[in-house]
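Duplicate of #3305? Posting structure anyway:
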């Protein structure tokens, strides 16, 4: 093997190792953020990934870069869902798809809501502009759905934020109960409708009142379902 071939092989091996380390770090970050929030120590992420802190910082120089990298797919999915909702011929269908998509992301990636809402000092102005545009787009979608007669006339865009916060709390308390999530989303969407349909709700959860879940902050164990 020539010297040049050896160098190329070494470079290819180095790139492959770097890609694997990056993927391990992103997977570890999502797991740690779900368990401890996005303010969890960077060293904890590095340990979970099985790499050194120096390796973490080579790939992600700041916490912002790590959080945005960890949830890049979810951020893009939210943005695409909002764009698709605005482009939909039926604004109610668009709004429904948006709510279901965001709630599914909350259910699947519990560290995502905090990442989505957090504004980092390094990009505060840029983040604020993006958020303001999203709020304007959401207001347009709400007005269109109301004009179509599908969305109740007293619905306010802030009601959607309240609904998403409530759903976020549910999935935090019941992380292993997707039925509860789907049923709550169905109830919320029905409450938004000007004339709720008669279609059946998704199957109920098996949660009982005597197994009422404690809040995650209490440190109590998750509820036992019957």
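Output from current build:
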């Amino acid at each position: 093997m020539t010297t040049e071939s050896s160098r190329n092989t070494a470079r290819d091996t180095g790139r492959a190792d770097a890609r694997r380390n990056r993927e391990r770090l992103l997977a570890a970050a999502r797991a740690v953020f779900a368990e401890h929030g996005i303010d969890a120590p960077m060293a904890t992420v590095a340990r979970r990934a099985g790499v050194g802190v120096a390796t973490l910082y080579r790939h992600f120089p700041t916490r912002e870069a790590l959080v945005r990298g960890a949830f890049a797919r979810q951020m893009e999915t939210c943005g695409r869902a909002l764009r698709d909702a605005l482009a939909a011929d039926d604004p109610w269908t668009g709004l429904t798809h948006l709510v279901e998509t965001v709630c599914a992301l909350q259910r699947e990636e519990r560290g995502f809501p905090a990442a989505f809402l957090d504004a980092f000092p390094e990009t505060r102005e840029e983040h604020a502009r993006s958020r303001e545009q999203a709020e304007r787009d959401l207001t347009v979608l709400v007005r269109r759905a109301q004009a179509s007669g599908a969305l109740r006339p007293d619905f306010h865009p802030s009601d959607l934020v309240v609904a998403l916060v409530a759903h976020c709390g549910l999935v935090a308390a019941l992380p292993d109960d997707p039925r509860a999530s789907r049923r709550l989303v169905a109830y919320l969407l029905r409450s938004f409708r000007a004339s709720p349909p008669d279609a059946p709700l998704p199957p109920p959860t098996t949660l009982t009142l005597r197994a009422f879940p404690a809040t995650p902050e209490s440190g109590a164990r998750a509820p036992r379902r019957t």
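Confirmed duplicate; merging threads. The radius of gyration is 22 Å. DSSP finds ten helices and no strands in the chain.
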